[in-house]
Hints:
This is DUF1330 domain-containing protein. By secondary structure, the chain is α+β, with helices and mostly antiparallel strands. The chain has 9 helices and 8 strands.
Amino acid sequence: MSRCTFYLLSLHGSASDFKASISTISNTPLFVGQVHRWVAPPMRHSIDPLTTQGSWDVFLFFAGSVKLPEAIEAFRKAEWRLEADAPPPMLAVFKNTDQQHSRAGPEDVPALTGRWDHPYQPDPDAHQEFDYSPELQNWVRTFGKQEGKSAVWMFNLLAYQDGKRETFMKYVEAFAASVGKAVGSESQIFGQVIRCSSTSDGEEPWEDAALVHYPSVYHFGDLVGSEEYQKLDAKYKVGTIKDTCILCLTEL
């Protein structure tokens, strides 16, 4: 397994000046993202450090165990840091895959189904782990006309009920082979969490971290609004997930 490091930063100064500073460091991030919103905020884990310190501005992803470079520290107002171990092939192909996404033409992007705007309505008594709420649907509609009309990334943290991680892995396999593939979703990084800056004695840790690519926020909406996704959610995730959170990013 290969170590990787994720940062969330709240900044002093402008994002453009921050981005310019990145070109001056030797160990450049594999991905620099602009943070937009919590699609699903944490409910049990790391609530205070992740959601109450103010808004996050930037997401960084590095190969290796990386201390924040001095050139970046000057812009840091607040930070949250996580280290994870991911399969070496994932890190090896990450940069090439990201370049392929940037070169993708319209013919490479799956057609939208419209479920982002007209989601499947499950049985009102059915329990879902992920709620595609009217508020989130309205945000997808608005954001899809802005930065979300092109590629987005979802940074996902996961913690499981005791002994349920393998059940979630079955969900990952079923997702990738079906509805995830249909909307152009690609899990670029999936790694086991080693440590994060908010974990203290007695606090339950996050277990996995993922960075997932979608061709647009509409494709993400098509996913979570689909009947197939909601059935997978009910089958594999209900009773399996102890806590999760999802943060929407675009490349800076």
